[in-house]
Amino acid sequence: xxxxxxxxxxxxxxxxxxxxxxxxxxxxxxxxxxxxxxxxxxxxxxxxxxxxxxxxxxxxxxxxxxxxxxxxxxxxxxxxxxxxxxxxxxxxxxxxxxxxxxxxxxxxxxxxxxxxxxxxxxxxxxxxxxxxxxxxxxxxxxxxxxxxxxxxxxxxxxxxxxxxxxxxxxxxxxxxxxxxxxxxxxxxxxxxxxxxxxxxxxxxxxxxxxxxxxxxxxxxxxxxxxxxxxxxxxxxxxxxxxxxxxxxxxxxxxxxxxxxxxxxxxxxxxxxxxxxxxxxxxxxxxxxxxxxxxxxxxxxxxxxxxxxxxxxxxxxxxxxxxxxxxxxxxxxxxxxxxxxxxxxxxxxxxxxxxxxxxxxxxxxxxxxxxxxxxxxxxxxxxxxxxxxxxxxxxxxxxxxxxxxxxxxxxxxxxx
Length: 415
Fold this sequence. Notes:
Blueprint: E1 3-7, H1 13-18, E2 26-30, H2 40-44, E3 52-54, E4 67-70, H3 76-86, E5 91-93, H4 99-103, H5 105-114, E6 122-126, H6 128-138, E7 142-145, E8 156-158, H7 161-176, E9 184-188, E10 193-195, E11 197-204, E12 207-217, E13 221-226, H8 233-248, E14 253-262, E15 267-273, H9 293-301, E16 314-322, E17 330-334, E18 340-342, E19 345-348, E20 351-354, E21 360-368, H10 371-381, E22 385-387, E23 390-391, H11 401-409
Parallel strand pairs: 1-2, 1-4, 2-3, 4-5
Antiparallel strand pairs: 6-9, 7-8, 7-9, 10-14, 11-12, 11-14, 12-13, 13-16, 14-15, 16-21, 16-23, 17-20, 17-22, 18-21, 19-20
Helix pairs in contact: 6-7
C-alpha cells in the first residue's frame, strides 16, 4: 500500500482519486480554503468520493505520507521546501521552483532566448494608459497577457483598438484598484501560424519519461499520440534545450509545451505549463489508459527511471460544461466513469454535484489505435453524462481534427 498526500485546488481531483487504485492505496486530499473569509466551496471539492480521504489541513499528514503530490502549479514553493526538508527520504511530485516558468512569463521568455530558442516579439508595458497607447500604435492585432494573477485578467487577443479599449475599461480596470497604472502587461505580436502542437510529458532527473504529443483545438478538444521513442524533432529540440535547467531545478512531474509553428518551420514555445495539462490530464486518471498510474507517480517523485504504461496509440479528451456551474452546485450524472471523468465535484450517497467556480463539470475520454477510433469514441461517450444545463453538442463539431493534423505534418509533426 502506498500512502499519498495530494495538495490541489480541485482541478486534479480525478487524478488524485486514481492514485487509490480502487482502494489498494490511501489518498489524503487537501484543497486550500484559507482566506479572509473562507468559503466552504473551496474545501468541499472531492469530499464524498469513495477513495479520497478529504482533509481540512495539510501539515499534519506530511510525515504520514509516502508520496506528496502537487499536480497543479500554484503551491509549488511548498513542494520545493519539502524537497529541501526531506531530500531523498520521501517521494515528492511537482514542478517546485520551475513554477516561475509558468507564472513569470517574462522570465520564461528570457530563458528561451538564453537557451537559443526563438521568441515572438513582445513588449512589457506598465499600467493601463501605456497599454492603450501600445495597442493604439498597431490598432490592436496583439495578444495581451499578465503575470500570475490570471484569475482576474486572462490572456485576450485584441483584434482592433476599439475592442481592446472596451476590454481594458470593462474587464481589467475594475480588478486593479489603485494599481491600474502600476500593473504590468505583456503585449505580443501574433505569429502567422500553420500549426500549434505541443508535448505533454512526464519528467524528472532522467529527462523525458514518456507521455503524449498532440493538439489542443479551439481550447477544447485534445487529440494526442503516445510517445514511443523520441518526439518529432522540433518538439524534441525544445525539450532538449530546457532539460539541463529543469534537472537543475529538481523537476519531477508533468509539463506541457504549447508551440506555434509558422510556414517556414520556425517554432515558438509561447506558454509554459508546469503541471498536468487540461483536459488531457483527465486521461491520466483512467487506469485503462495508464495502467501503472499510482506506481508511476511515486516513482517519478523518487526520481526513478520509470515510464507510464500507456495502453493506446492515440487518445482524446473533450471538456463538457454546464451554463449554471459557474455560480451554482449542479447535479451531474455519469454512467460510466471509465469513459467520462468528473471535474471539481463533491458527492454524498452517490449524488454528485459540481462545485461553483468553473463551468466544466466533466471530461469525455477517447482512445484507440487510430484517430478515427478516438473521435468516434468521444462522440459516443457524450451519452454517458447528464446534468442541469450540461451541453454535449459541441463534441459533434470536432471532425476538423484531421485538417489540423495534416497542417502539422507540413512542419515536421508526424502523427
